[in-house]
Amino acid sequence: MKTYFVSILLLLSGLQALQANDGVYYANGNQLVPIRETDISVQKEVLTISLCDDGYARVEVDYEFLNHGAAKTVQMGFEAENPYNTDDPMRKDGVHPYIHDFTVQMNGTVLPYRNAVVEPGQLDTPYTGPHDDTPEEFARYAYAYCFDAPFHEGVNKVRHTYRYRMSYGVGRCFEVPYWLKPAARWKGGRIGDFTLRIKAPGTAKHFLVVDSLFTGAEFKVTEGTGKVRHTRYGWCSFVEVALRDGTVEWHGLNYNPIEDLNIQSADTYISFDEKYPVGSFYDRSDLYVIWPMEAKVPDYLARNLPYASRGYVFKKKNLRELFSKFWWYMPDPAYVPSTDDFTPREWRLLNEGR
Question: Which of 85, 53, 18, 10 is closest to 260 using CA atoms?
Answer without folding.
Answer: 10
